[in-house]
User: Fold this.
Amino acid sequence: EALGFECIESKANFILAKPLKHDAEKVYLDLRENGVLVRYFKNSKISDYLRISIDTQENMQKLIDTLKVVL
Assistant:
């Protein structure tokens, strides 16, 4: 949320995060280009969201660091 995302509360090992000032598909593609994989569902009701699986602390930090660059 501190990076400008609306997150849906989750009790699973993933969150749905909606970038508020950026296009979700563009963020997905930029992350993928930088070696960070998240899920994006283009033709669905959640096409404004990224599905981010919770992983190791190291991988989560890489996601945060990469988001700071691509946003």
Observations:
- The radius of gyration is 11 Å.
- The mean pLDDT is 96.
- Strands lie at 5-8, 14-19, 39-40, 50-53.
